Amino acid sequence: MAVTEQSTQLLGNLPTPRALRNCMNRLPVICYNTKNGWFTQIIFEDWFQNHFYKLVKKQQINECRIHPAEVKVMLLTDNAPAHPIAKLTSPDGKITCMALPPNTTSVIQLMD
Fold it and tell me: Per residue in 95-109, is it b (16+ CB within 10 Å) or e — as a string?
């Protein structure tokens, strides 16, 4: 996927990382922060619904020339604690996120 909008994600314990303080507005990044700097299910669900879904749908329509009614995407994740246990679906039902079954990542995931 081309970096056309905010598609990269940063996580830390500061709202804006010190190194990026003066250029954060110009970078294609989304910055989340938690007290301990850990990725959580709440952050993942927010990222999926508010950033991933919109960006992927836009790319499918504009760059891949797929009709909006034909857009279908499945995001597969491993079963890390920060990834949702239940299936996530975009508001229009066209983009879905599902986790691989427990203890199968090393068998199924090609580059693991």
Answer: bbbebeeeeebeeee
**pLDDT (tens digit per residue) in 71-81:** 999 998 887 87
Specify the pLDDT at position 61.
93
Distance CA 28, CA 21 (A): 14
Q: Identify the segments of the chain with pLDDT beneath 50.
A: 1-7
Cα separation, 101 vs 14, in Å, equals: 33
Which pTM value belongs to this model?
A: 0.71
3-state secondary structure the chain: CCCCCCCEEEEECCCCCHHHCCCHHHCCEEEEECCCCCCCHHHHHHHHHHHHHHHHHHHHHHCCCCCHHHCCEEEEECCCCCCCCCCEECCCCCEEEEECCCCCHHHHCCCC
